[in-house]
Amino acid sequence: MPGEEGGTPPSQDFRLVGRRRAGSPFRLLKKFLCAAQNRDIPVTSITPSSVCFGGLPSEQARRRVKERLAPCKSAEAAPLPGFQGRSPCGFHTIIGDCAMTHCTACRAARPQSARLLSLFDSLGPIMSGPSSSHTAGMARIGRMGRSLVGGTPERITLHFFGALSHTYKGHASDSAVVAGLIGEREDSPNVRHALRLAAERGVKVEIRTHPDSDRNPNTVSMELTRGGRTYAVVGVSVGGGEIEMTELEGFPLCLRGNEDGALFIGPDGLGRAVFEERLGALSGFSCVKDGERTLYLCLAGKPFPDGADMPGLEMFPVRNILGNKLADAEPLFSTLAAMAELAGGDLPGLIEGYEARRSGTGRDEVRAAVLHHWEVMKASMADGLAGKSDMLAGLVPGDAGFRLARRVESGQALSGRTIGMAVARALAVMENNGSMRCVVAAPTAGACGVLPGAILSVAEERGLSDDAIVDGLLVAAAVGVLVAMRAPISGAIGGCQSEIGVASAMTAAGLAQLGGGTPEQVIHAAAIALKNLLGLICDPVAGPVEIPCIKRNAVGVSNAFAAADMALAGITSRIPPDEVVDALINVQGLLHPDLRGNLRGGLASTATGRALKDEWYARMKRMQA
Questions:
Q1: Rg, Å, the chain Cα set
Q2: What is d(CA 321, CA 460) in angstroms, rounded to the nearest whole number?
Q3: DSSP notation for 437-499
Q4: Residue 184 belongs to what H/E stretch?
Q5: pTM of the full predicted structure?
Q6: Which of 60, 261, 339, 370 sits at a 20 to 30 Å CA gap from 590?
Q7: Which DSSP helix (H) or strand (E) runs through 297?
């Protein structure tokens, strides 16, 4: 059962994918063999006396693991630099772009190989609240599942693990996955009503939870029945709406939602030429073997036409659900220091070039897309300030932004108009988010108020043009991308430092740009803001994105202003900006699980927090009845 399987974040996961236990000899031996390969120890030199796990004779275990991970017979290798035609784990052959689908050990060896993020992975997605990881990401996983099985399933069984077992209802995760599976986008107002819509369409939905699992808590395992056949599909929400589809029918894979093509399962021995003869030219091709079966990935520049197939193979269509494609996997820059060094006097222009190269689009299109996101941000601020929001859980009144804005407008705010209105707007956006209305994640929904509240307040005070605002947002998005390519930006994985901390760093950088800062001042503003919030825990009360998430955005705003002003005054971070990101990664790894969104630590542990949890859980049971 899925609940029996252990796990860690994908970039650190050496497990065999499937239904074997985390401590099995297969997984342990695979990790051992990968380590041996990394030390240039030939696999054939590992003898029966050198390793034995779980009572299984080591030679037998080694043979079975090697058989499972054996190269496809159609070894048309197009080697990546440094791997001499073989994957980092040393067992299967790289064919085409190995970054698109390979075993989890390969991802651990090259964690950034398939994660050259778009600016709109950081400044976005545009989504219905309340959580980018657990609502928008889950809707995207559902959409990918729907694509893979060829349409809306007749029956859906969802498995949630760890912290998400407790919080899924407060984040509408079940509704979001189902929304994607019935064809709704992550920004659709129907996300909130998807369970009812599914029932009206005759789709049966079952939820199973595994609270004691140590599997990545952002994982959803789906059993999808369509046309009398049940499929096993697994996806992970990486953070900020970004996803990875990690398993199909027990095979490991790595799809991120911006690919077109198809997966095929069938006998071993088929080469690229066989597929191209029937399907046309492919932009990527790879395969992985499991016993007598092989999974083939065929990527193309556009979706295969309806009716495309491969006789004798089971086909699983892959559709681009994100809109952007990875046009060039070689980044224009990959560190904060490199970005500042390359910028010269035009940091926004450099960042436009990053996205244009990465996604194969024009610079004017990049700026137009940023401006569109800004219009959505402004609308979410206006909606939130209009009055009382209809909060999903109702743990807070939903009028904090409105109340603070009235005080600021009356001239009574101690922090003054600019910061006071920035905080009021941040609260208003978060209340909009908590009522499942449309917001822009920046970089997550749980921190979506920080950036727009601060940027709009400064823009108003200084009379800035839309072009200047777009420049500030470009800079903010680039900082978010450079952090997210190295560190998780999900509170359930790395604590709230991963959300509010990163949002504050993005905002500080954007403010420094609006204030006329140099590229060096911009990245030091980000570093100062981020290091000020290291260690910030994720402790949502009862689970919904309300307490303390909404008011915590205020800390991100005020911290960003302080960091930007310090940087613009010539104050630098003694720890270099990229090393501050190193520190974030370090603290994320050290943070106790009870401080990462599982409703056990921090404010969730208080008497009032526990009482609110009991109240909310009772309401959830009535909702599920």
A1: 24
A2: 36
A3: -EEE-SS-GGGTTHHHHHHHHHHHHHT--HHHHHHHHHHHHHHHHHHHTTS---HHHH-GGGT
A4: none
A5: 0.81
A6: 339
A7: strand 293-300
